[in-house]
Amino acid sequence: MSADDIIRLEHGSGGALSRDLVEAVIHPALRSEAYPELTDSSPLEPGSDLLLTTDGYVVDPPFFPGGDIGRLSVLGTCNDLAVCGARPFSLSLAITVEEGFPVERFRAVLESAAAAARETGTRIVTGDTKVVPRGKGGGIFVTSAGVGKRVFPHRLSPAMVRAGDRILVSGPLGAHGITILAARESLPVGGTLKSDAAFLFPVASSLFPLGESLRFMRDATRGGISAVLNEAVQGAAWGIDVEEEAFPVSAEVRAVSDLLGLNPLEIANEGVLVAFVASESAGQALRAVQSQALGKQARLVGRVTEDHPGSIIMITKIGGKRRLDFPRGLLLPRIC
Amino acid sequence: MNGDRKLAQELVAGIARAAAEIGRPVKLMEVCGTHTVELRRQGIHSLLPDGISLISGPGCPVCVTPSGYVDNALALAESGRAVIATFGDMLKVPGSSRRSLSGLSGRGVVKMVYSPSELIRIAKESSLPVVFLAVGFETTIPTVVSALLDARDAGIRNLFLYTAFKVVPPALRLLLSGPDHGIDGFILPGHVSVIIGPEAYQFLEGPDGRPGVITGFESLDMLLGILLLVRQIQRHERKVENAYPRAVKPGGNPRARAVIEKSLEPRDDAWRGIGVIPGGGLGLRFELADMDAEKRFDIPPARDVEAPGCLCSLVIAGKAVPPQCPLFGRVCTPDDPVGPCMVSSEGTCAAYFRYSRQ
Description:
The complex is a heterodimer.
Chain A: H1 16-30, E1 42-43, E2 50-57, E3 63-64, E4 67-68, H2 69-82, E5 86-98, H3 103-120, E6 123-132, E7 140-150, E8 166-169, H4 175-184, H5 201-206, E9 214-219, H6 224-233, E10 239-243, H7 251-260, E11 273-277, H8 282-290, E12 299-305, E13 312-315, E14 321-323
Parallel strand pairs in A: 5-6, 10-13
Antiparallel strand pairs in A: 1-2, 2-7, 3-4, 5-7, 8-11, 8-12, 9-11, 10-12, 13-14
Helix pairs in contact in A: 2-3
Chain B: H1 3-22, E1 26-30, H2 33-41, E2 52-56, H3 61-64, H4 67-79, E3 83-87, H5 88-91, E4 110-113, H6 119-125, E5 130-136, H7 141-153, E6 159-166, H8 168-177, E7 185-188, H9 190-196, E8 212-214, H10 219-234, E9 240-242, H11 254-263, E10 264-271, E11 275-284, H12 293-296, H13 312-316, H14 340-343, H15 348-355
Helix pairs in contact in B: 1-10, 2-15, 7-11
């Protein structure tokens, strides 16, 4: 990036430009030699079994069907730990709120965060509040950090992935992003559409018995499944083949996406994880996830291949082949 | 196997049989940008036999708008004499200096609209004249013109159109008049044909014509369109067929056509990459001259200047494919585009980049 570049909304959308910002600006400035990898959470110190993660939440509107910013800030941070093989236990919350925000709604955010903490078996143990002048904030922003204890002993990383591995998606795609969009734009969509915000530890831990056959997991938030798979495949010695039809998408999400020209594979989720598992354990992995309440619609969607390293080829519904690229352009700002 | 995949296989087998009988390479041009995107998104190219190649034509309205049009819009916005209103896809199109309207968006002189119906509100709220960048083919023209007429009826006097309306048939006629066009048939645009009707392509059945099939946008529609085209070529026929009858009716849409004819008249118009096409554009009729931004603001004719190294003009004319461009995927990407074919989501380069990049 050059000196006169500015931060664009696209830098926050979870797609190609978000990755560029991390790689070209953030990582060079903050990288520590002891932590070369870009992961969702990292050990408190090298070799530690205590993992630390943090995440910022700017979702607009802050209250939406299926959740609110308080619930999201707890679940999202817990999920970042869960997909790294850790059980979350302590959280912090830092809230930036704009002058004029109703105390009643502020309290509702906190109560919702507390309820989500109970649901996840975590405690919110510290926090901070800042108030910014009217018109200088975006209503309410929440930043949470979380600490978890590693309960899965093996390394989880794209570096562990091997040709032949299968790719599992734990649930239907796109519900969160489409719900936020519908709430924000007052789209006339069906009443059953709601965010999929959920605690992913039960699904993640159902895969722990796979041992080393579980290679890598990620929760598919901003940029959707497409961003997760493209990040994983980038620079790898392997590529990915996926079947368009295998991806679970609800009829409602499908209908709204078609209407708006959006691709459900690029839409944010808050309760879906992607797992890379060894081919011989794929059946076991699918059964394990499908036995979980959140995982009933889990599917195996693709496999890792030595052909076309670094890229993803999608087999379309009619059997054609095309590339599945990083999400690009302005996706949906303030989606989580 | 799902039903669509089975049907697709049958259509592909039919295409392969016809292609084998033809016994030489066949080049089909998809005229419409939506086809360019959908053909690649559905992976249709990967299913076709080697002898059949699909090339993209001048079917993306943003792409065929000359860079000088953007220069003129930039100059008008910066002069402080008017506010520019535009659809989002024009915002990022670079002018000849590589600057685009999106660079001015912080200054309040450029407004993005999702629908022409917003124009009345924007004009009412603006103390300055509002100039809408009226870029589009037959598909969007009636809606834009209707919004303009509504504004006029509502007594709004500060809304103007800077027209770069383009019409498809003259462009095809011009492409066919070139000596080495190499085009064996046209996948004709579905949406445009809904408005203008199959009759508008009658000239394709004449001496210099080529087979044409009006085609829908589902994957099976597109395979059917290709099959009908190669069958015509195999039989040495030259007909305009309608393979999208559920949307395209004889005569097109008379109401939409009446709106166009009442308000606009054909004019010779510069297309990026192709040059001036006789009757290739539509301008406001004399009766609407008081809403014509070109007259009101003395806008000069749009020059067409290409960014150095950019092959958009050849890509638009179907004479080059994006990977042949030295900028493609290196300097020019959807996040930082050089030419309009990469800016527009319907542009050939953007479709290649997203779905077919190696």
